[in-house]
Amino acid sequence: MTGGFFFGAEGRPAWHAKAACAETPTDEFFPVGSTGPALEQIAKAKAVCATCPVISECLEYALRTGQSHGIWGGMSEGERGTERRRRQRRGDWP
User: Cα(51)–Cα(75) distance, rounded to whole angstroms?
Assistant: First the structure.
């Protein structure tokens, strides 16, 4: 894969082994909805991201690969969309 996101033997990005979420159940980062009880789940996922040494790599991966669900790099789907548009306006996005 291009852009420095090389995959390891398990089919995950190479940086994933260093991620704070590596030992956390995946479903905790994929809340159902964006209101009510999902808000607490989103906050918990973002708290894990806030401690992550590879948060930038995670966000870049999510943006470059078009991840449309879940919390990636400390951002929700909507926040990543806003970031993508911001980068497009600045000319920092393909």
Answer: 14
CA–CA separation, 52 and 56 (whole Å): 9
**Average pLDDT rounded to a whole number, residues 43-52:** 96
pTM (2 d.p.):
0.84
- Helices 37-50 and 55-65: crossing angle in degrees, nearest 10, is 120
By residue count, the chain amounts to 94
CB neighbours of residue 38 within 10 Å: 14
Long-range CB contacts (within 8 A, 24+) of 49-58: 49/20, 49/21, 49/73, 49/74, 50/74, 51/20, 52/19, 52/20, 52/21, 53/18, 53/19, 53/20, 54/15, 54/16, 54/18, 54/19, 57/5, 57/13, 57/15, 58/15, 58/19
